[in-house]
Amino acid sequence: MNDTIVWTYPKRSLVSRFAAVAVRMVARPVIGMWARLPGLLWPFGALELFAAVLPAVRGVTRHPAKLPNCGGEWIVPESGRRSGVILYLHGGAFLVGGIRSHRRLVSRLVKATGVPALSLNYRQLPGSPASQSLADSLDGLKEIVASGVPVDQIVVVGDSAGAYLAVRTVLAAQRTGLGSPAGLGCLSPFFDPDPTFKLEMPNADKDPLFPPSALRTMWQQLLAAETDPTDLAGLREIVTVPSAVLAALPPVLIQVGAEEVLRPDSDCFAAYSSAAGGDVRLELYPGQVHVFHVAADILPEARIALSRMSAHITNCLAPARSVAA
């Protein structure tokens, strides 16, 4: 049995305090309105449209990728390239976000590690259920393997709903015989779509981004979208598999805001995996909002977290040797 390794960032910057207030005042009311009126014609694609103005960081190049049922983007370092690949799965509650909204975050990981990344525009609600999001994510892993990269030289990273897909993608790869990737990185992960347990926590209504109603509505949307009983049952795969299955995952690094409403998912995942001997580390960042990593341009905590995630990625790929750019 292993003890969960928990590390807590010891500071909180002034700018992060302002960011939390801004998120509570601007973003939370909009999400709350969606939770009350999910049937309206919400412009889910607007975030990707506006995110087009956000460039990748300097020092990387980009080119499009085409998968069987979705598109994506390769981000490659211009120098200091290492072997191995990052498969990045964006978050957005299975509704919003994509390669544009997360391009800057992914490019930071690529530049810091020297490891190329494939970022996916997997299918999402309301047009596609989570089972199709998972199928696209697994296709992304297969695409990398087909390009000549061994599965054990791939690190799967995701944030929020993307972290959920990252874990389920690795579980599917192991279960189907594709093999086990080198590592997993989870940023503000969402592991259990059923919000019941999380909303029983004392501070469930304190999250600056998500009102409790949003978690309930998202769960209802996920349930309603699935038509196959097997896919429906699979929605809670991460929290229903035996702890030994979680322990068999490759090394996992989880980073989460200490007060996030989703934090119980991280605590439980780490505890169950560690109890069965799994290699999992949990990092807590006090006062940070959900997926604070996307604000690395202004938040020092985000830069620290991405630096530590980059170190995790390179450690997972340690056997890989540097290759010429």
Automatic annotation (TrEMBL):
Domain of life: Bacteria
Domain Alpha/beta hydrolase fold-3, chain residue ranges per copy: 86-293
Protein name: Putative carboxylesterase
Species of provenance: Gordonia hirsuta DSM 44140 = NBRC 16056
The keyword Hydrolase is assigned to this record: yes
Keyword Transmembrane found: no
Keywords associated with the record: Hydrolase
InterPro entries: AB_hydrolase_3, AB_hydrolase_fold, GDXG_lipolytic_enzyme
SUPFAM superfamilies: alpha/beta-Hydrolases
Protein family: Belongs to the 'GDXG' lipolytic enzyme family.
Molecular function terms from GO: triacylglycerol lipase activity
